[in-house]
Amino acid sequence: MSRDRVIDIHGAKAYRELVELLCAQKLDLYNPIETLVIGDDTEDELGDLVQFLTATKEVTGEIVNFLAQPSVKAPDGGRLLFCLGSEENTRMLIALWRIGQQDPNGDWIVKPRNLKNVVILFPTDEQLKYLPLLLENTDITVYVVHLRDSEDPHKDGFFPRTVIEGFEGIPAEVDLEAEEDADHELGTIPDDAMYGEAKKIARMLKAPIGFGYLAVICGLSVRVAPISTVRPNLFGMLVGDVGEGKTVAKERTEQILGLVNSGSYESTTPASDRGLLTLFPGPETKPFLLALDEARAAMEKGSIQSSTLISGLCELWSRDSTGVADKKGVQRASVRLSILGNLKIKDPSEFPAVFTHATAHGFYDRCLFAVRGGEKWRYSPWEFESMRDEHIPSFSKLPAIKQHDGTYKTWCKFCRRWHFHGSLGVKTSHCRDSASPYDVYELIEEASCAKS
């Protein structure tokens, strides 16, 4: 998740900078952005709400007409109260973002998805309870304005949150704007360039860490459900010569993440555009990892004159469908595609021979590349037993409650229903949406400890 989705605002200077920022966005002639300001339904909070809106006059010379709770009207004409303290009210806000709002004459008050900012004035922790639900279903940026920090009264500025329940945030020390050193020779991936669950799993592989980390994040991408602001599929290439550990990293990743028999794995190399469409015919869109032990073969096929294989892969990087129409008929593919490929390249001079003019335009920009980078590594055996060693990250597990009759039940966060099973560790056969990332249940409590 991006670090700038939730930003805490402390201090009068930052407060004014926030008002200036939102006014500039609202007054953009070509793409005006809506902001919803939320205060509590109390006299003090509504006073703060008026103060916030009035502060815009100091910046623009006139009061900018932001949306302000509770002035937005519900379809029945009553006040529409937005807050993140209840699921119902949070879903009202999500609905406003998704479908917009029109007045009785049909004129847009809020156009769909034009609401980009929510400002919450002085909330309690309870009033932010359903913040993760809002982030998961919209691309809204949330600014949380605080009273003076009791621990640091002089605290002033914008402070992006890195820890939000339900998300694995990017650590604050990771510099996303670091400039590339063009003269720097590629070396081993820096430790501070890796983080979270993927870093832990990559260390388990006993493979070159640069290869292992990229292999793991590509493998995990098929287990992450897309949301409005995140399309999780990745195209990754492990680049190196024979014997450098590419296949070791790829195969051990497939094993430890349980990908091969997951129903989201394909290792057949498409030889043409129609070959690609045959692999993923749809009509149901499912996440798939296309694992290519010899990705160079697919690149060579894509370089053949008049081949549209590479353009089809480029389309599937940013959308879930592609197709062709010719004298043979119309054929389409439907898939959320990730790629993990081994690309045999002896040295940098050989790279342009693989990424030719036909493949360099577009596909190169869509790929992440990993090199061993001089890392010292020696092959060592890796004993693996799926029941013992398979490691499915916690974000793909749901807690199961054991019932008195020996069966298990779990609440699916994705389809919002109870699932009942006879044993642990089974697929979500009751969850009919294939996009659900939750596929394994683990016991957390006996029925005697909780109401069934």
Topology summary:
Elements: E1 6-10, H1 12-26, E2 34-38, H2 43-60, E3 67-68, H3 87-99, E4 101-102, E5 108-110, E6 115-121, H4 131-137, E7 141-145, E8 157-160, H5 196-204, H6 209-220, E9 235-240, H7 246-256, E10 265-266, H8 273-279, E11 286-292, H9 295-302, H10 309-318, E12 321-326, E13 329-344, H11 351-354, H12 357-360, H13 363-366, E14 367-371, H14 386-389, E15 397-402, E16 408-412, E17 417-421, E18 440-446
Helix pairs in contact: 1-2, 3-4, 5-6, 6-7, 8-10
Give a written overview of the molecule.
- The chain folds into 3 domains: 3-160, Rossmann fold (3-Layer(aba) Sandwich), CATH 3.40.50; 191-389, Rossmann fold; 394-449, no CATH class.
- The protein contains 14 helices and 18 strands.
- Helix 5 (196-204) packs across helix 6 (209-220).
- The radius of gyration is 26 Å and the shape is globular.
- With 452 residues, the chain is α/β, with parallel strands linked by helices.
- The chain has a 6-stranded mixed β-sheet. Strands 9, 10, 11, 12, 13 and 14 form a 6-stranded mixed β-sheet that branches.
- The chain is 28% helix and 22% strand.
